[in-house]
Amino acid sequence: MTLGLINANPVVQAKKERLARTQDQHRDDHDDIRDPEHPYSLEQLSVLSEDSITLDDKLNRILITFTPTIQHCSMATIIGLCLRAKLKECLPLHYKVDIRVSPGSHADEDSVNKQLNDKERVVAALENPNLRQLVDECICSSEM
Amino acid sequence: MDLMEKNMELIEVQKLEGHTDRVWNAAWNPVSPILASCSGDNTVRIWEQSSLSRSWSCKTVLEETHTRTVRSCSWSPSGKLLATASFDGTTAIWEDLGDEFECISTLEGHENEVKSVSWNASGSYLATCSRDKSVWIWEVLGGNEYDCASVLNGHTQDVKMVLWHPTMDVLFSCSYDNTIKVWWSEDDDGDYQCVQTLDESTNGHSSTVWAISFNAAGDKMVTCSDDLTLKIWRADISMMHSGEGYAPWTHVCTLSGYHDRTIFSTHWSSDDIIASGAGDDAIGLFVESKQHDSVNGPSFNLLLKKEKAHEMDINSVQWSPSKENMLLASASDDGMVKIWQLETIP
């Protein structure tokens, strides 16, 4: 899978078109992320969809919302970490990514969102070898 | 000096490259032209200014000690020791031997990542804090010995930063639990208790508080947060100096609308300029307004905002203690440390 978003100096295009292109790429990225508990990808489980990606006008900020399969999904933070790890591989380094569960989709929505968007906590979590291994297993290799 | 009446600019003096991962913190040595920076690459870099060329270069790299991210570093008041706090759960103490630095001690005890370390004004105590929600106070004994004097529990979440008051042995901590806590040993017997909590009910922050900084006199404090604001606080510390008991901190004003991403760091200079560094890649500088409103109290104005100061999030801003010039160091996710000079434009 190649990432067409290697567009360091984006040409001015219709915003809708640019948005659609980038969403396609992100959708491709997410095809590769397995739900930790199921053998299907997040997209197949409708945890993620095209609607769940928002770019802002400055085009270096992305908001991703995802819907865990159940309200008390204990893997919500892991899914979020997988999304971050995968996006870090695919996006230009200066992109700022916010990840949230879709409103109303999780019992501990605020708590999960806060953890997923605390940069220091995310970095520390991904430095933890056990968590890192789990995350790596969920992110199917994109070089295949 | 009324800075608001002049045209000021933050000029980039030098970019210090070398770290191979994000730089979390930069700390100026209190007595020499030396800057320490610490990074996600597990190392600490010591940068020195050449007296001839005035340019900064990397004098030494402290490596092979911490096994994970080094999150913050702090010089002792004498400038001879450097404490480094790491996600590996330890705090290392390094001694500057001239040619090199030697790790003379390792403080262990926290259950997980250590986030911050601070020396008190006399250098007799160290404090550390961690994601394990606790704050530890360490006594500096002779012969490179450090002893845990106290374990302070109270925060309900990850503690992001600890800072000793500049003139009194009062300890401040701020946390993912959105509060700032003040710890004091009333009888000066080493028994520290939480004597105040600044939370939303006392005009406090509504999200994670990332940093604290005091003015030189120690009667004002600035805090910054994930809630996108900076808050100014004050206390009648003369009351404490004269032994009349604890003087509580009260909210003075809130600076909002200047950053649109988490504000990770703030630092109050000795000439009363507050710097902020945030996830919007910008540095903000604020000064107290001359128009004193006796009803509403002091207010602060934006002196300038340096957009795109770095390519990525700014994790730390620190004013140099040097009286000669207004130098500011910034550290960023982009792996750079930058040195800035605040100048008046003619």
Compact summary:
The complex is a heterodimer of chains A (about 140) and B (about 350). With about 140 residues, chain A is of the alpha+beta class.
Topology order of chain A in helix (H) and strand (E) letters: HEEHEHHH
- What do the pLDDT scores of chain A average to? 70
Q: What is the residue-averaged pLDDT of chain B?
A: 95
Structural class of chain A: alpha+beta
* Percent range for β-strand residues of chain A: 5-15%
Strand content of chain B: over 45%
Strand order of the largest sheet of chain B: 1-28-27-26
**Global structural class of chain B:** mainly beta
What is the alpha-carbon Rg of chain A in Å? 15 Å
Determine the number of helices of chain A (DSSP H or I, runs of at least 4 residues). 5
Estimated helix fraction of chain B: under 10%
- By DSSP, the count of extended strands of chain B is 28
Task: Note the main sheet of chain A.
Answer: 3 strands, mixed
Low-confidence stretches of chain B: none
Termini distance of chain A?
A: 8 Å
Query: Major beta sheet of chain B, specifics?
Result: 4 strands, antiparallel
Distance between the terminal alpha carbons of chain B, to the nearest Å? 16 Å
Describe what this molecule looks like in 3D.
The complex is a heterodimer of chains A (144) and B (346). Chain A is an alpha+beta fold and 144 residues long. Chain A contains 5 helices and 3 strands. Chain A has helices at residues 15-31, 76-90, 109-116, 119-127, 129-138, and strands at residues 53-55, 61-66, 96-101. The model of chain A is unreliable at 1-22 (pLDDT under 50). Helix content of chain B is 1%, strand content 51%. With 346 residues, chain B is an all-beta fold. Chain B contains 1 helix and 28 strands. In chain B, a hairpin with a 4-residue loop joins strand 3 and strand 4 (44-49). Chain B has a 4-stranded antiparallel β-sheet with strand order 1-28-27-26, with no helix packed on it. In chain B, strands 2-3-4-5 form a 4-stranded antiparallel β-sheet, with no helix packed on it. In chain B, strands 6-7-8-9 form a 4-stranded antiparallel β-sheet, with no helix packed on it. Chain A: This is MIP18 family-like domain-containing protein.
